[in-house]
UniProtKB/TrEMBL annotation:
The chain crosses the membrane at residues 43-65. Residues 92-155 are annotated as: Disordered. Residues 92-137 have a biased composition (Low complexity). This is Uncharacterized protein. Keywords: Membrane, Transmembrane, Transmembrane helix.
Length: 274
């Protein structure tokens, strides 16, 4: 008679139940999370700006109603209401003001005040765009180096100070940084992280999709190919750590999946606190 517990154990240990991790899944998840966070921040910023515009418009309308004389109040209400709703209603003011000599000064005051408010509202959106555009245009293009190692990638180098690393223009500064004590930045055009230690400087550089080591190892390479390229590499829990040829202070770290293929790699200092 078949033991049910033994049979279930045998079934769950079957290799066919393993679900291999899609190559590049880590980068895709990180990039997707960044996009969602960016869209959420944009929605919050837009909602705040619209609320400010609405409150300002109500304040203008109320100040126009309370500031006019009682004998000319009906004539004053019309231009103020029209101007508050549309910016192009200034051309409609002269016909309304011809009914008496008193309204023109008041309607002129309303016209001069409303454009100033409208002008102050429009820059509330434009500064963020204009201030970010020059910064982006002033940056050097992101590096497209196809290989990582032995001392760094692109304009980044292991051991580089945080200030020098930021000055390379390799980071997407709209994301800022996170983490403590090490600060994590994100590479432009790739979404992969770089960790910087306050003690050791640039400690870890994760390779962008498509970037390989000088020995030709990258995402999609097999465990066997890694071991052939780096005979002194060690393996533990789906992680292969290999000394970097030509740089005794650094190592390559390869993450593998159950199908024994690399899905991410990074260059890092052999000693750091990140």
């Amino acid at each position: 008679m078949v033991n049910l517990e033994d049979e279930l154990s045998r079934l769950f240990e079957d290799e066919r139940l393993d679900v291999p991790v899609r190559p590049g899944a880590e980068q895709l998840v990180v990039a997707g999370a960044r996009r969602r966070r960016y869209r959420r921040n944009s929605v919050v910023a837009t909602g705040g700006a619209l609320t400010l515009v609405a409150v300002t418009a109500v304040g203008i309308a109320l100040s126009g109603v309370g500031g006019g004389r009682t004998d000319t109040l009906p004539a004053t209400n019309l231009p103020v209401t029209t101007i508050a709703t549309t910016a192009g209603s200034e051309t409609a003011l002269p016909p309304v003001a011809t009914s008496s000599s008193a309204p023109p000064p008041q309607s002129t005051t309303g016209v001069s005040s409303v454009p100033s408010v409208t002008g102050s509202q429009s820059p509330s959106h434009s500064p963020s765009r204009s201030s970010s555009t020059p910064t982006g245009s002033a940056q050097r293009p992101a590096s497209t180096d196809p290989t990582i190692g032995p001392t760094g990638w692109g304009r980044l180098a292991l051991g580089m100070s945080e200030a020098d690393a930021v000055a390379t223009d390799e980071f997407d500064m709209s994301e800022g940084y996170s983490g403590s004590p090490c600060h994590r930045y994100w590479l432009r055009g790739g979404g992969t992280p770089v960790d910087i230690s306050p003690t050791y400087g640039v400690a870890r550089i994760n390779a962008k999709p498509g970037v390989t080591t000088p020995e030709g190892i990258g995402v999609g390479s097999t465990d066997a190919e890694v071991m052939a390229a780096y005979p002194n590499a060690t393996t533990a829990n789906y992680v292969i750590t290999a000394p970097v040829p030509g740089n005794p202070k650094a190592v390559y770290v390869f993450n593998t999946d159950p199908s024994q293929k690399i899905f991410s790699l990074r260059l890092e200092l052999a000693t750091h606190n990140c």
